[in-house]
Design a protein that fits this description.
Elements: H1 3-9, H2 13-31, E1 39-46, E2 49-55, E3 61-67, E4 70-76, H3 105-108, E5 124-129, H4 156-159, H5 161-165, H6 168-179, H7 185-192, H8 199-205, H9 211-220
Antiparallel strand pairs: 1-2, 2-3, 3-4, 4-5
Helix pairs in contact: 6-7, 7-8
């Protein structure tokens, strides 16, 4: 998969936002970590902006910002030949942000998304304006020769695999492997559907975790009714 496959596979903005919130909520409950886990969500990331994040702890990450203008996303695979760290010049791969709308251009220089030199830490960039019918990306020429990885040159395949799959089953498969525990599918489906949480559902995913302890974290992650 490349950025162009990703832009074809992603759902509309509202559906993607719900998907991101569900994944973040599941992480909060299953991990029991106040800061979330592999996936996280901040409903008040900045004034008028919400954001979803993935960090795998090995240097790979993504961020998707939701605004009134639409949504902007970036992914970073630290092993991709398209990384800004790929050569001593520390430059963004050509074409990644070609054609990006002015509404999203501030995210290209957002300090929390950039390396020390002020270069966007990204191997994949995508966006969709409110009212648009599709996700967009710049005009990118992928690496050739010894650097080429024809199946996943920009890292989008493994970075966005769970998000693109977009099912509670896919999330459960990921989480059971990552957290090395068995998870009941019905409880995962309950959270995936953004239905009000009960202590019974929380116990099914993380026995002994009080609902009142996780509720404030879920509220900050935009979980409905938390």
């Amino acid at each position: 998969m490349t950025i162009y496959d990703l832009t074809r596979a992603l759902p509309d903005i509202a559906t993607l936002r719900d998907r991101c919130r569900a994944m973040a909520a599941l992480e909060l409950v299953i991990s029991g970590n106040a800061n979330g886990g592999y996936f996280s969500y901040a409903k008040s990331w900045a004034p008028g902006e919400e954001a979803a994040f993935m960090e795998n702890g090995s240097g790979d990450e993504y961020a998707i910002v939701f605004t009134a203008a639409g949504a902007f996303g970036r992914g970073f695979d630290h092993e991709s030949p398209m990384s800004p760290w790929g050569d001593e010049d520390t430059e963004l791969w050509p074409g990644l942000v070609d054609g990006i709308p002015e509404a999203f251009r501030p995210f290209v220089t957002e300090p929390s998304f950039c390396v020390e030199e002020g270069v966007l830490q990204a191997t994949a960039v995508f966006w969709r304006e409110t009212g648009d019918t599709a996700w967009r990306a710049g005009t990118v020429e992928f690496p050739e020769g010894d650097q080429a990885d024809h199946t996943d040159p920009d890292g989008t395949d493994h970075l966005f695999e769970v998000l693109v799959a977009g099912t509670p089953e896919a999330y459960r498969d990921f989480a059971e492997d990552y957290y090395e525990t068995e998870l009941p599918l019905e409880a995962v489906r309950h959270v995936w559907s953004l239905r009000p949480l009960t202590q019974e559902v929380v116990d099914a995913l993380n026995p002994g975790l009080p609902l009142e302890a996780v509720a404030p974290r879920l509220e900050r992650a935009g979980y409905p009714g938390a």
